[in-house]
Design a protein that fits this description.
about 210 residues, alpha/beta, TIM Barrel, eight-stranded parallel barrel, about 20% strand, binds the ligand O=C(O)c1ccccc1N[C@@H]1O[C@H](COP(=O)(O)O)[C@@H](O)[C@H]1O
């Protein structure tokens, strides 16, 4: 018998096509992530993101996924009606000061010894922590066994978004370890580098399946 755990919301990240929005609508995702990072194969222009976002159901929240976000880009993101700023890399003081959008601070965990440093600072200005694996959208989990209780303690009082190599097979284990508010996936719901309707549905089904 599986122990009862909370049922987190689901973020599907890295939309690049209009049909990706249809997949999220059909599967009932809670958050849609758009990557604004030129080095990523999932990078989209603001124009393209707006085009795709216009096809999303109104109840799906739009997350702008960025790396060391430049202040100059914040207003453009706000103008397009994004709901949340996800910031990997450096979170600049000007960015924190200039926006009223909720900030999800992403911590990319490669060295478990430095976990506490990754969560240090910025606490008052952020809504949640994205606990993610090494690299950006690398599709690899961090060491859950070593980190889970520390991540839960460090994120206490904030939203916890679990990311990094989640898939339909491991997501329920991740939920049991971390009790996240949101589970966040990109790589494993792709087929040949494109979002897959079937994989998105399967992932969301696994997250929401009734505990027995
Ligand atoms: O997906 C990307 O290319 C990316 C680029 C820059 C910053 C973050 C990026 N992705 C984020 O990675 C996690 C998890 O992805 P995965 O399931 O391990 O592939 C998610 O938060 C994405 O927003």
């Amino acid at each position: 018998m599986e122990k009862t755990v909370n049922r987190p919301k689901v973020k599907i990240c890295g939309l690049t096509r209009i049909e990706d929005a249809d997949f999220l609508n059909e599967a009932g995702a809670d958050y849609a992530g758009f990557v604004f990072y030129e080095k990523s194969r999932r990078n989209v222009s603001l124009k393209k993101a707006a085009e795709i976002a216009a096809h999303l159901s109104a109840d799906i929240k739009k997350v702008a996924v960025t790396v060391s976000l430049e202040p100059a880009f914040v207003k453009e993101i706000e103008t397009l009606g994004f709901d949340i700023l996800q910031v990997h890399g450096t979170l600049k003081t000007e960015v924190k000061e200039m926006t009223a959008l909720p900030i999800w601070r992403a911590v990319n965990i490669s060295d478990t010894d430095t976990l506490e440093e990754l969560f240090a600072g910025n606490r008052e200005s952020i809504e949640g922590y994205v606990a993610d694996g090494a690299g950006y959208g690398g599709g690899k989990p961090f060491d859950w066994e070593v980190c889970s209780s520390r991540v839960r303690a460090l994120s206490k009082g904030k939203k916890l978004i679990l990311a990094g190599g989640l898939d339909a097979e491991n997501v329920r284990t991740g939920i049991r370890y971390f009790h996240p508010d949101v589970v966040d996936v990109s790589s494993s719901v792709e087929e040949d580098g494109k979002k897959s309707r079937q994989k998105i549905e399967e992932f969301i089904r696994k997250v929401r399946k009734d505990e027995q």
